[in-house]
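Need a sequence for this fold. Nothing fancy.
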């Protein structure tokens, strides 16, 4: 592109990123609304927190779509990369940290709660900044794997576990003792985002890939079960993805290739 030509902003991928940002914004609003109602001893806070979880999971879907649409149309751009990271900080950094703080961490010792929440937010923001630096580097990196647990998956795991706990303890009107698992999980995920464990990014998956009829039927059945039992299935899926990083070194390359195509070059640490 010539220097005199204006840099273009592609509409469709950035609309998906805007949807991601909107979901993160709505999640924060619902958490604040739930906190206000919780102080007045009304039951509405439960539904506000639950809706905020749906918003975080919705942001996860938008985040997957924006990158996929950009790559399919050959429309990846520096603007889109920066815009996506800014939206991710809100949807997958601030929203989950604030949610867990209001549900669990605020009951811990003075300062301990917000320190844990801030550590998660700090690690997530630094991870996104590192990804942008590597993506803008003149050196070419493989985009088929991440080094460390990606922040959208971290937020998805926290949101799905919280959603499961809200469902299990719905009749009691309060979250049971398992809520402290969220505090420990938040610290653990903060470490995992900067760990050396490698995870597939699934960016090489092609929507035009061909599958056998039985394979398509199995995928359709699996998708239906995930949607039908989403309160349980999402927590299981994100947990399996987290555990994959630990079992990956023990899998053969052929087995890993069934999930995604690996490259020999070093992946970006993001």
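Here you go.
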């Amino acid at each position: 592109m010539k220097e005199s030509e204006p840099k273009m902003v592609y509409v469709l991928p950035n609309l998906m990123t805007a949807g991601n940002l909107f979901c993160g914004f709505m999640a924060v609003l619902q958490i604040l609304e739930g906190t206000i109602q919780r102080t007045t001893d009304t039951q509405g806070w439960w539904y506000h927190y639950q809706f905020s979880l749906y918003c975080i999971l919705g942001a996860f879907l938008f985040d997957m779509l924006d990158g996929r649409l950009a790559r399919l149309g050959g429309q990846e751009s520096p603007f889109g990369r920066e815009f996506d990271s800014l939206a991710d900080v809100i949807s997958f950094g601030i929203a989950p940290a604030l949610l867990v703080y209001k549900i669990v961490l605020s009951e811990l010792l003075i300062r301990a709660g917000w320190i844990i929440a801030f550590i998660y937010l700090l690690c997530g923001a630094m991870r996104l900044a590192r990804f942008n630096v590597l993506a803008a580097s003149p050196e070419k990196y493989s985009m088929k794997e991440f080094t460390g647990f990606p922040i959208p998956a971290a937020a998805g795991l926290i949101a799905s576990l919280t959603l499961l706990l809200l469902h299990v303890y719905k009749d009691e009107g309060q979250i049971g003792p398992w809520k402290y698992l969220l505090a420990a999980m938040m610290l653990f995920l903060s470490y995992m985002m900067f760990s050396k464990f490698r995870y597939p990014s699934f960016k090489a998956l092609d929507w035009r890939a061909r599958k056998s009829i039985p394979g398509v039927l199995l995928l359709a059945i699996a998708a239906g079960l995930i949607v039908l039992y989403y309160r349980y299935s999402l927590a299981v899926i994100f947990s399996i993805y987290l555990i994959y990083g630990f079992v990956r070194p023990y899998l053969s390359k052929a087995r890993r290739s069934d999930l995604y195509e690996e490259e020999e070059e070093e992946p970006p640490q993001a």
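For context: The first helix runs from residue 11 to 39.
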